[in-house]
Amino acid sequence: MYKRIIILGGGGTGKSTLANRISLHTGYPAYHLDNILLNSDWSIKDKSEWEEISKQFLLKDTGIVDGNYSASLPNRLSWADLIIYINIPTRVQLWRIFTRNIKIRAGVDKRHGFPEGSKEKLSFKFISWVYHWNSSHRSKMFSLLESIKDKKVLIIKEPMKLDLEKLFE
Fold this sequence. Notes:
This protein is of the alpha/beta class. It contains 8 helices and 5 strands. The chain has a single domain (4-167), classed as P-loop containing nucleotide triphosphate hydrolases (Rossmann fold, 3-Layer(aba) Sandwich), CATH 3.40.50.300.
């Protein structure tokens, strides 16, 4: 059974939601990199600070880590025994971030995996990053994932349909 899981994918793909689902199913702690590596004003913590924080959860025997953060990706890939990449179209990613933003601002939903006290914001920079993710990052991720031979790699299109019973039997 898998004990150390990382979840990758562009913004709005459902990484944090899937991490929380797997956490509920397995009882493993979920570590959301946005929550760990960002301050409540969305600025990135000092690199030495988040490297130290990352070391703490990478010493654990079980856990689910969601987020990309390429600087710490090699350490997470070494740690993981299951890597899940969520591959969805850009239009779906954009739809999800816009609807998520509206729901959060309306008080109907909350942002999973973000620092306590952070305000939801939808910046041009973030929208642009999401818009360009598949064209600029996806092929690099696929190349990286194809090179991994000693771990289970799943590329999924619908995270809510991932059969956790079957995956963790």
